[in-house]
Amino acid sequence: MADLYSKKVMEYFQKPKNMGEIENADGIGKVGNPTCGDMMYVYIKVTKKDDKEIISDIRVKTFGCVAAIASSSVTTELVKGKTIEEAEKISKDDVAKALGGLPPVKMHCSLLSIDALKTAINDYREKKSEG
Amino acid sequence: MKVYLDNAATTMTDPGVAKAMQPYLTQEFGNASSLHQFGREASGALDQARVAIAKKINAEPEEIIFTSGGTESDNLAIRGVAYANKNKGNHIITSTIEHPAVLNTCKQLEKEGFKISYLKVDKRGFIDFEQLKKEITDKTILVSIIHANNEIGTIQEIETIANICKEKKIVFHSDAVQSFTKVHIDVKKTKIDLISFSAHKIHGPNGIGALYLRKGTKIKKQLEGGSQEFNLRAGTEYVAGAVGFAKAVELVEDKHYSYVKQLRDQLIKGLEEIPNCQLNGPRGDSRVCNNANIIFNFIEGEAMLLRLDMKGIAVSTGSACSQRDLKPSHVLTAIGLKAAVAHGSIRFTLSRFNTTEEIDYTIKTVKEVVKALREISPLRRGYNG
């Protein structure tokens, strides 16, 4: 399988970025993929700046294969510093592109990381409306 | 350090094997069917190879049919017996933990109208003899059960299975690709009718295997062509391969396997120090001497495999993520593991070329990799073991 993965995928897999949790996170997204059983937990910290809501920090924990770990890791980099609206526009194809491509059978891993991110953003909005 | 622990996939060709093959890849190139001296030399070498392999299982040389490998041997055995006994019945019994060469051949026969019973196994991978007896009907023509399982190393008691089949006059085949030379088989004592072998699992070359076929067993050839291999397997013989296969068999010594078993137990003991892991398959002598299959909870096998690969260690996994169809290993699900748990399985298979230092390095590296991957896994919060 290793030769199926791009150099970028292997780099992110070898040294994943922003792994871990955020204490008192503003939004948490926990998703699992029934296709192969991968799990991702995404934690976001949102900071307000000039009326904009910016994702100032993001961390992720991943149980899954090489593609799942690399996808979740690169997603954190794509998101960090972006506004909520900008982050919501990121697609699975953006994730795959940032990784130099994913094998077709592993595209669901990039989708999972986007799902986790969106779930975390929704969680943030719900908490905000409650609060 | 480079450590090869995937010997159930394939093995390093023994230098002695390569040396024995060399003349047959160059000047001794004759076709074993030719009458001239080139052909006679080739057929002489082929005969000698056949004798050496027959001797290992106490068979007669004419009971050994050379094939292209384990897969072809399984196909010839199962299809050959099924088609030759069609008028007698259409029922075949096998198990849920067979190699795909057996499993998929049976599934194909199912499409052609044969009825197949798949025996369940217990959590260590053993079939139930009572279940086997119950499944036998007057339409049963063949029983095919793997000897040593390629994933979890379970060794079935083939003597018992052979006796049950013998009593009911049913042909018994076993895929012994993983057990050949590791577990002694004497076909004069064990009433087994067909056995599949492969050379490249025992430090022989790729592309050659054999089928043991007990004299008098009805079988239909599966490749049309010339009358090679007692008119049971057409095609010009791979003489260099047969010579290499025989050499590989001759080079095996019992002490190699007691050494391998010692390394295996060292590995299992070391890895079991890791919290939250479990050994799949049995312990002790009913486990093939070179296999350790361990599940590390909270992490996924493909990620583990490639992290180990980066450290020079070659293993395999039953994780769904490493399969193109994203299905977990059928063997691991057959022993009752849930897909999510089967995810974390790693298979280590050893050979006589491994060393104690390599095993120490592997234990140390696996501990590091498991720790690193568990740290980023959400399944066990705050886990640092």
Can you offer a commentary on this structure?
- The complex is a heterodimer of chains A (131) and B (385).
- Chain A has 131 residues and is of the alpha+beta class.
- Chain A has a single domain, classed as Sufe protein. Chain: A, CATH 3.90.1010.
- Chain A contains five helices and three strands, in the order αβββαααα.
- Chain A has a three-stranded antiparallel sheet.
- In chain A, helix 2 packs across helix 5 and helix 4 (92-98) crosses helix 5.
- The termini of chain A are far apart.
- The mean pLDDT of chain A is 92.
- Chain B has 385 residues and is of the alpha/beta class.
- Chain B folds into two domains: 15-251, Type I PLP-dependent aspartate aminotransferase-like (Major domain) (Aspartate Aminotransferase, domain 2), CATH 3.40.640; 253-375, Alpha-Beta Complex (Aspartate Aminotransferase, domain 1), CATH 3.90.1150.10.
- Chain B has helices at 15-25, 37-56, 70-84, 100-111, 129-135, 158-167, 228-231, 239-251, 254-271, 301-310, 330-334, 339-342, 356-375; strands at 3-4, 64-67, 91-95, 115-119, 140-144, 171-175, 194-198, 209-213, 277-279, 291-296, 313-314, 316-317, 345-349.
- The model of chain B has no long low-confidence stretch (mean pLDDT 95).
- Chain A binds chain B through residues 1-2, 10, 13-14, 16, 19-20, 30, 35-41, 61-69, 105, and chain B through 298-303, 306-307, 309-310, 319-322, 324, 326, 339-340, 343, 375-379.
